[in-house]
Amino acid sequence: MKLIKAIIKPHMLEEVKEALAELGITGMTVYEVKGYGRQKGHNELYRGAEYRIDFVPKIMMEVVVSSDIAAKVVKTINDSAKTGKIGDGKIFVIPVEESVRIRTGETGIESL
């Protein structure tokens, strides 16, 4: 199994969610986060004064999938979240050793 973490622009969440639903992904966890990468934040103008925004609002989503569809899920997230502009985000793939559904005790892929 693989844990896929994707950090994307907030307005892209619905499109990514719909694309993953078409793949049969039935669950995910979503966090509202702030951060910066190469862009190092941005400047905004408010009432005539310029302010530096160091941490940009983003969405971090996590989904655990079987290893055999992980590459397809990564491609789907990438294709649906891509705008071609700076700050589109990152995707990380992390191995998952075990998963347990607390309610039933199911383990592994069956617990997803």
From TrEMBL:
> Sorted alphabetically, which SUPFAM superfamilies does this protein's record hold?
GlnB-like
- What is the name attached to this protein's record? P-II family nitrogen regulator
Q: Which GO terms describe its cellular component?
A: cytosol
Task: Give a yes or no for keyword DNA repair in this entry.
Answer: no
**A GO molecular-function annotation:** enzyme regulator activity
**Which positions bear O-UMP-tyrosine?**
Y51
A family per Pfam: P-II
Identify the domain of life.
Answer: Bacteria
The Gene Ontology biological process annotation of the record reads: regulation of nitrogen utilization
Q: Which UniProt keywords apply?
A: Nucleotide-binding, Phosphoprotein, Transcription, Transcription regulation
The UniProt subunit note reads as follows: Homotrimer.
